[in-house]
Amino acid sequence: MSSPLYFALLMLLLVSSGVGAAAALLLGGSRQSRILRSSAAFHFHHCPSVRSTSSPSSLLQSSSSNNDNPMISTSNDDDSSLRETIERLVSLIGPSDEDNLVKPPLDSTADQDTQHHPSIVHIIGTGLTPTLLSLPLSTLHLLSRADVVLYDSLGLAYEDICKIVPNQCEVICVGKRGDSKKSWKQSEIDELILQMAMTPSTSASTDGNMTKPKTILRLKGGDPFLFGRARTEIDALKSNKIPYTYTPAISSCIAGPHLGGIPLTDPSLNCQSFGVWSGTDAFGRSRGLESTNDNATSDDDENSGNLEGLGVDTLVFLMIGRLDKLEALCNLLAKSGDKWEERTPCAVIQNAGGGRRSTAESDDSLDSSQKMQRVWRGTLGSIVPLIREGDETRTSVSPAVFVVGATCQLDFLSY
To answer: Cβ–Cβ contacts within 10 Å for residue 338, how many?
Structure first.
């Protein structure tokens, strides 16, 4: 930008928007410029061209040249004030707990400086309905000091992350969708974490050194260890002697039914236990779906029906939003024995924790930008036809939690 035009714009900002906006332009580190530099920070379904065939390295290279993303109008003054408030709270409450830092054992034969990599990766669960208000202070503190944030599609929103991270922080969405070709592969995410951790920061540290260790946050929706892929990420960190921390959170398998008004246990109904399964196995195969395939082998049938532990009182299934998967699972359960049959109560909670809606509301009457929670209640024999009522073309209700058992008759969200 030429100097006359630059200072004309600066004076215009001083008159129309105040000192804060002008100072942001003058410093050259504005929120807007950072967002324009980081096109990868949006969910892949917002900018499909970025994730269609790109590897992590090519994605990072393209992020510096793609200017198609909308800007988020967040004041630098507000962001700085929020970070200062968090620092003040931490100083009042006490020093952060560093006992959970996992690092390689000391090697007496190695130099002190080469014991482990100086950067630290923080693997953090954000729960089912993550907002800045719902996060613990320790997570907010780490966000306020982050150099890199890698986040999931179902985790903390990009806009919320940008309210708290420093201006130079790289914010990248690495969300996965099992049925989408645009989804990140876990091996790519592992590689990207290592890339970020092993590339030193170029910003000056407090002692004047132009390179400093990086604080890298890996935000994962729900709890990272429950049906998550945290193990491969941790294995990659251990292999490269990169220290890390882990922060657990409430999983959707518990929060989802409860936010839908369905308790997992209830003494009056003699429901004292529950079990949790994934609707899709580690190889992407669906529970019971193979048994409906004419070409299925006997081994496929045996594996698809392998649902041990069905003696509990309440069943919870995650990653079961596709209706063909759900229907196959309902059929499998109904044929599994006397405890579960077509008349067994069940429920599907879609977008658990989102804005509440009644089943009478049509999709057209709702704001498409807002995630709305919806709960369908029925039986194993009726739940899928009930979901398809009014829309025979519906193929998925993802993200969804599927609950089976007597407690599905209860509804603690209504009088």
So the answer is: 5
Q: Which residues pair with 201 in a beta bridge?
A: 212
CA of 383: how far to CAs of 328, 347, 374, 402, 414, in Å? 12, 7, 13, 10, 20
The number of residues in the chain equals 415
Confidence bin at 244 (pLDDT 50/70/90):
very high
Are 146 and 165 in contact, with CB atoms under 8 Å apart?
yes
pLDDT at position 79: 76
By DSSP bridging, strand 274-278 and strand 148-151 are: unpaired
Count of Cβ atoms closer than 10 Å to residue 327 Cβ: 19
Of the candidates 158, 177, 198, 167, the one whose C-alpha atom is nearest the C-alpha of residue 69 is 158
The model's pLDDT over 9-63, given as tens digits with 9 standing for 90+, comes to: 444 444 444 434 444 444 344 433 333 333 333 333 333 323 333 445 555 454 4
CA distance 389 to 292: 23
Question: Is the Cα dihedral 203, 166, 215, 172 positive or negative?
Answer: negative
Instruction: Specify the pTM.
Output: 0.73
User: 172 - beta bridge partners?
Assistant: 150
Instruction: State how far the alpha carbon of 158 is from the alpha carbons of 84, 175, 291, in Å.
Output: 21, 12, 40
